[in-house]
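Might you be able to check the backbone structure tokens below? Thank you kindly.
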Amino acid sequence: MSRRGEMAMVAFLQAQNCSNYPGSWRHPETMQDFLSPKYYQRIARNLEDGRFHMAFFDDRLALPDILGHDHAQAVTNGIRVVKLDLISILTAMGLATEKLGLGATYSTTYYEPYHVARVFATLDHMLGGRVAWNVVTSLNDSEAHNMGRAEHPEHDLRYDRADEFMQIVLSHWDAWGDDAIINDRASGIFADPSKVRRLNHEGRWYKSQGTFTVPRTPQGRPVLIQAGQSGRGKTFAAAWGDLIFVIYPNLKAGQKVYAEFKAQVAASGRDPAKVRVCPAVYAIVGNSKDEAAEKRALIESLAKPVDGLALLSEVLNYDFASKGMDDAFTDEELAGIKGLQAIRDRVVAGSGKQNPTLRDFVQISGRGTIREFPCFTGTPQSIADEMQEWFESEACDGFVLAATHMPGAYEDFVRLVVPELQRRGVFRREFTGTTLRENLGLPRAAPFDWQRTPAA
């Protein structure tokens, strides 16, 4: 199947001391100036040179301190413990680039709808329509404690609340008509009040009344990223997401999930062709197969067992220090997991056990290692072969590329793999527009088009 030039490419970033791979900070080529704007601007310029559609940042509102209910292990080993505010980072990167899309994670559980709407609408204006919001419901009790709550809400309840949160945010973003501002100094009329809608929302979770203060943005509204992969999470993603971040173990599984999710998008009343599905992957590229294998061996040697235990405890909201490696989880313990249930479900399926052990969680999830995502390893040609196969066999619409070390993993990919993908015609040579929606091949968002979805 030919899908010429349509492959989406997204960089998966962290505003912290390491990439998504916690061992990356131990890599001898990783830059250490992650507390400076130059670090992020250097990455942004490289991604723009490589014609990436977007850089998006994952985030948590707490460091991984659930293992042993102590932060010492995470801090000592540098396990994703520095977490900077993302809007400042996006602003710095946006001012160093012209076309690169930029996305940030903000939680529907611990922020207010008006605040999120204003932050992202303002940034979308300041960066010329290049902004995306990665919508999350957060994961664990540590985040709840940092935000003044006693505990993290139950999984499905968070998504029920998030549906209403989305209605309010999108209503704010669509409050101003595109032609509301007249700006006629001669008549003294700034804007037409009949084209500015006042919100009067009263629902199960929120009561929000007032008139939004930011006019409609260059792309209509920011792009919405979503990564829901549990049953309830998929329903949420199908209703709201423009770009869906997924994790597949392999190509065959990806084709199945891709087809099922696109059908779910259609069932929600949306056009599946206007939703991009992109799996997370690593890429380790060398000028030869042997060189790539040597690079991979070094990268894999950087992981420590404590990395996976700390990150599993964080993402599942369960202290993995409380069980022995071969102790099975009880039905009650599995049901009580309030964090990322997709990982729990993946481990149950992968182990073939109704009650997997802690060792099963570590080995099958790959958390804290480069086994967490598919890792394309080899020459530029062999990596392009795999990416093209995934793309053209309808397992995905593009990729979310995680980094094994910073910024070298992206520099290698841009220098070696991107030209090969471009030569084959599956990846663009130039940006097609100025806004993120244009570059993703998505239309400018029409006012209140989201009201077609059942979730609304």
Q: What stands out?
A: The mean pLDDT is 94.
